[in-house]
Design a protein that fits this description.
Largest sheet: 7 strands, mixed
CATH topology of the largest domain: Spore Coat Polysaccharide Biosynthesis Protein SpsA, Chain A
Strand order of the largest sheet: 2-1-3-7-5-8-6
Number of helices: 21
Radius of gyration: 28 Å
CATH architecture of the largest domain: Alpha-Beta Complex
Helix content: 40-55%
Length: 613
Amino acid sequence: MDKCKVAFIICWKDGRYLQECLKYIDRLYVPENCEIDVITIGEADSIFEAYNAAMHSTDAEYKVYLREYAFIHAVNFISEIVQLFTQSDFNMIGTLNSEEEVGKAIFKEVPLVDGALMVTRKDIEWREDILKGYMYYEQSQCMEFRRRDYKIGAVANPERWYYRAYKPEWPDLNALDNAISFSKEYYPLEEAKNEEKHKLIKRIKELWDKEYPYIKDLLNSGQAEEGIKKLLQFNDVRLFDEKIDSLMMYVDALSIDDGEIDVFKKCADFDEVLDKIAEIRFLIYRVMAGIGEQEFIDEFKNGEITSEVLALVCSNDEKNLNNIKKAISEVLKTNRKERLCWFGACTLYMKETSKNKKELDVYKQYIENNIKEWKHVRDVYFDKYYRNRKLLKWFNGKCAVYTCITGGYDQVKDIKVVNPEWDYICFTDNHDLKSEKWRIVYLDNPDNLSPLQLARRVKILPMEYLSEYDYTIWVDGKIQINGNLEKYIKRYAGDQSMLCFPHPGRNTIEQEAAELIYLNKVNEEVLRKQLEKYAREGFKDVNGLCDTACLVRSNHDEHLRNVMYQWFEEIKSESGRDQMSLGYVCWKNDYSYDICDLVIHTNEYMSTIAHIK
């Protein structure tokens, strides 16, 4: 064995992802006393057979077993793994395959690592004798190492080494057989579970393979309603298949009025759309790794990549979404006008690929004549589809829409559209305030807060006033509700536990401070000290300035609750202006919120009416 040799063994199914994976390996730093092998095994029937064949084909002691969707961005990865092995008695290392926290430890012993990347310095046969296909390979190999008392270690954060690219895949059809074999081999007293589930997935996969060409033809030929009806039958398994997931993106595009997504115009057919989506996704990962910034900037400026495209391509990439948002916001240095609508409405795109202009004109006319049909499809199916999306993680259950009017600062506003399943609550210190649609709740003030401070406390700490609700929607006293707020949440909420509006006129706290000083709404000396404090701490507001007049928040996210408590304390200890400190406390706590692309003063959901004081 050559102790200075590292072999990268990649078992792949998708050549597009393989080529991208190899680009990352090419840029890794190779220490002077090391050399590397790269072995690729394509479209193998069994990952167990493929890994065994590759293992025996190289004399490298350190072997990196890698799937094509693991993009190693850590340039010093080779040095790190060699150092970890030489300074420890571990014989396999990898990353945690769950969201388990490891406390402050960077590296610890674990029973199992994620199969996307497994590094060994002992050669143990992969159990091709009892297991087939691609299921249970990491579990089985980890069990084989533990049987020999070989220690397995894991890095706490997978992103330290690699990004796991978003790639929906069907469970292996050998899953049921492997589950039975795995159970008999390693847990003989435990029966294999979920047999019916495995059989059901197999039947759905067979049905999908049969229906896919027909669904694609229906959507491409303009028969959207029929195509979407059939496609939605497979919604529950969209994360099993890249084609289903991409077709759902296509549905998103069809479901928004009469716009168009230019980047897909040149795609001759849906297969090219798939390739284009993958190409954009790869570029986004390169931006995260710090190697594709200029290419991304150029494509964004040229209109090849737009906010609508980003919304389509990134919205389901839950594991990487926060890093994507931060990376792109930093690269583009986005201001309010350029703000990326990550979960904004995606627009209808038309593929202008016909060389025959007459045919193209006929197609455009068909679209124009059927705008009502598209809107019907959106209303009936688009909302149904979004109702099942991940936003239900936070915004589901019992909801309260609430406001607070103190010191006679405002009059209670009318509600044009009422959700009968929600409660509408107005907190106030005015015993004469009445409303037909708002339930009036009179406030005690044991801390003798000023009317403004009392209203801010209610605004910022809904968990103390509305603890029985799952989520809340705060609206300032100046806000009049005109539209369906549930539709607003479904359209713009993502995987974060708070949804905000962008500020309509300013992008930074420096601009906000200048406006406050100009309007004489704050003590200038106090405000300048607040800005100096944030600058000293290195505060960078990647989200930009938001308008806090409407806040949709979960009551169950402990991370957000802590941010809200710190926000209120920051308001009390500094200038007293809430918009000055929200970005700071979010940054300090590494918390990100979702933000829509609407102007709060006037949109279909709400409008503002000037304060009476």
